[in-house]
Design brief:
heterodimer; A: mainly beta; seven-stranded mixed sheet; four-stranded antiparallel sheet; 0% helix; B: mainly beta; six-stranded mixed sheet; five-stranded antiparallel sheet
């Protein structure tokens, strides 16, 4: 199965600044997904990143606020720009690794970035 | 947007007891998956059940699927303190091939 290294694991940032989150996958994958999880809530898709093309954003998320890079098939970054306290959330990357186990295949997730904006 | 609802939102049990969590979804599916999240960290895939399956087991986990009711349940038998986590159901219903998650159940297992 794919393994994702996500950095940083947590950060406390001042409002108005930006934070870039990195995800490195140990194998080549076509699509990478970025999710936001607000405190006590479920996961919401921010955007899907394909190598060599613009990311596809979900309703309510815009490129100016959440620019994404996908320079190759193993790496992606998500930047949270001009942060406000409302951006305090856990941000996760994920790939459809389609690994097979006895329990069926699934998606692989990074360990998450816990962002607090003060 | 969330695929559906999970209940209960929170569940507190004693070690050794069974824990049952339910999930409902809105659209037709190819499969339904369950994930665990420890302390707001990354998600770990637990089990997948296909739309033509009614029940599936993996260790202490038992998942059922009722496509006529658009619902699924996750049973954890003989729970342990280490099972304390949030549990989410998810379907591959997103337009980008992404997962769509339920709201989750926060399970607390007391030793």
């Amino acid at each position: 199965s794919a393994v994702i290294s996500q950095k940083p694991s947590r950060d406390i940032c001042q409002r108005g600044t930006s934070l870039t989150i990195q995800c490195q996958v140990d194998s080549q994958v076509t699509m990478m997904f970025w999710y936001r999880q607000q405190p006590g809530q479920s996961l919401t898709l921010i955007a899907t990143a394909n190598q060599g093309s613009e990311a596809t954003y979900e309703s309510g998320f815009v490129i100016d606020k959440f620019p994404i890079s996908r320079p190759n098939l193993t790496f992606s970054t998500l930047t949270v720009s001009n942060m406000s306290p409302e951006d305090s959330s856990i941000y996760l990357c994920s790939v459809d690794a389609r690994f097979r186990t006895g329990a069926g295949y699934g998606y692989t997730f990074g360990s998450g970035t816990r962002l607090t904006v003060v | 947007s969330q695929q559906g609802e999970e209940d209960p939102q929170a569940l507190s049990i004693q070690e050794g007891e069974n824990a049952t969590m339910n999930c409902s979804y809105k659209t037709s599916i190819n499969n339904l998956q369950w994930y665990r999240q420890n302390s707001g960290r990354g998600l770990v895939h637990l089990i997948l059940i296909r739309s033509n399956e009614r029940e599936k087991h993996s260790g202490r986990l038992r998942v059922t699927l009722d496509t006529s009711k658009k619902s699924s349940s996750l049973l954890i038998t003989a729970s342990r303190a280490a099972d304390t986590a949030s549990y989410f159901c998810a379907t591959t219903g997103g337009s980008q091939g992404n997962l769509i998650f339920g709201k989750g159940t926060k399970l607390s297992v007391k030793p």
